[in-house]
Amino acid sequence: MSAQGPPPAGAEPPEAEAEAGGRYEPVGPHWFWCKVTDSRERWVPFSAQDSRRLEEAHGAGKEQEDVVVPTSGGRYDVQLRRRRRVAVYWEEEAAEVRRCTWFYKGDKDNKFIPYSESFSEELEEAYMIAVTLGEWKKKLESPNREVIILHNPKLMVHYHPVASSDDWVSTPTEQGRPRTVKRGVENIAVEIPSGEPLQIDHLVFVVHGIGPACDIRFRSIVQCVNDFRNVSLSMLQAHFKKAQEQQQVGRVEFLPVNWHSSLHSTGVDVDLERITLPSINRLRHFINDTILDVFFYNSSTYCQTIVDTVASEMNRLHRLFLQRNPHFKGGVSIAGHSLGSLILFDLLTNQKADPEEEEHCAQGSRTASSTGGTEGVKEILKKLELSEYCDVFEKEKMDRQALFLCTEKNLKEMGIPLGPRMKILHYISSRTETKDQSSAAPGHRERGAEPESPSQPRDSSEDVRNCQYRDVALGQVSANYPQLNYKPTIFFAFGSPIGMFLTVRGVKRIDPNYSLPTCKGFFNIYHPFDPVAYRIEPMIVPDLEFEPMLLPHHKGRKRMHLELKEGLTRMSVDLKNNLLGSLRVAWQSFTRSPVPALEAASTEAEGEAEAGPEKQPDTKAEEPPAAVKEESPLINVGRLNGGNRIDYVLQEKPIESFNEYLFALQGHLCYWESEDTVLLVLKEIYQTQGITLDQPLPGSQ
């Protein structure tokens, strides 16, 4: 039978043509693969693009050559001859593939199920004879005594025998409820995706957190990343339509990185099983399989296994991806959820920058030191209210370091009077800086070097606040952190406990001048009710209280319940202020004694003056929180994200706002299907390529 593509959209169905003119038209095949979940089979159609490529390879007779056809954006290969679909980047059970033309559906079936290819050919041959000769009501019996009757092009039924083993019962035609039979994929209710763009602009590796399950439905990292990728494709169509039309944008590829299975294949599960108590078995098994991953990561033995697995897996995936996509010129970013984000952060803090970059940074530091030393002295003199002596220090080429080496004799020789001299000497003596420690960026000390002592003598709390930055690598488990084969463009952390772990390790502050050695972008994204998530920015700017950036809704506005809440808050503030003002006026009118009009006027003015400052704090106290304000003031949060904001908070859904405790777990597992999270990731990735959203979202940076 000759192969032919499916009929064009809007064309008359083959059945209608057959009934009208008696002409036979070959059926248009579509390729499906079998998805098995909990021993239940479900046939899933390939995209129109993939099915067309498979049919072309089939029609060209390439089955004999055992040809492999890449599908699903290159993440799966179809072995055409063996009719198998196999995963490329991760381990997965091979799935059966079928070239489908005829389908059936029973009363208990939710979707149409394709017949085998051989039986479909028999049905197609019987259909062709019926159409050509005009002889309908043909019976076709399958090898297992199931009967299909072709009444006419629009009515074809399949009888499934109930007691086929008994020859004395009634014929199979009379038993059981008939199944509906359909010819051609266009006659069954199935959604066929068009396919993914071939052009890949960026690659993102996604590392999971604790346990084998990554969401509330206990799905694997592969399934969750599939959802994340599908959401990204819909967000690209919705928010990068102009760039897509101009062929500037293709898609972003997301690949999962699994470390849990490698960790638990070391034999540790057997050791744990030996010591686990028999009571509350399911709960103990769940704890052993999930919660203990946090303790494994804090063990030097298993931490080494985890970081080796994550780094080697990302390097392997990167090499394999480049082999399969030799023309790829885009960048690579990494994303981590929960504990996975901490693993990536520790890996990134221990990456080594290129020698050229280190030399460039060192030269920049020396240049800044030579040009900024005098400025440092000017700042000190200004602080001591001695700005008039700046020219004297500049003439002597006195920098900050030289100033702290000065003695009274040196200052006297420079012509500094006794009073200013005493101020400068007191300032020097109250500081114990032998080196300008505020210029030492954390994370760059050699591994094994002695960390700065927390008990170092400090005579001033200002020094402790402004000059002491603990190494972000302080307290990390002693491990040999592998190097990545690439420099990540951006690091995305979802529901991340990085801030908490740094604090527990003894890192109270992060130097504003610190950035990850090989990655210049860092975004900490979290749900407001996520119990595992912590902020990063307060560790960089501890003296200033400010809210995180509110992540804009992907439809370009705040969620309705947040707008309503904000509106009601403003309304209650206005109502309260008006009510208080009316009560004050009424009270003053009751308590005011009869005095001349002039005195009454002055008393009223005094009352208003007293009432003024009272109103202000009330209004201020009832203002909506800054987290829901659309415009945030510019805040310098250091170089960890290139000077841009780091903490981004999602907007909770209306139902989640009723009880934050009830949705706490869901808040930690919501990122995989969050359009707002995906849109921020896409926005930041494409911004590095100079491509922006069709319309900027309100409140976005």
Automatic annotation (TrEMBL):
Residues 484-687 form the DDHD domain. Residues 1-25, 355-374, 431-464, 598-634 are annotated as: Disordered. Residues 612-632 have a biased composition (Basic and acidic residues). Residues 17-99 form the WWE domain. InterPro entries: DDHD_dom, PA-PLA1, SAM, SAM/pointed_sf, WWE_dom, WWE_SEC23-DDH2. Pfam families: DDHD, SAM_1, WWE, WWE_3. It comes from the Eukaryota. One of its GO terms (molecular function) is metal ion binding. One of its GO terms (cellular component) is COPII-coated ER to Golgi transport vesicle. Gene3D superfamilies: Transcription Factor, Ets-1. Residues 1-11 have a biased composition (Pro residues). Belongs to the PA-PLA1 family. This is DDHD2 Phospholipase. It comes from Zosterops borbonicus.
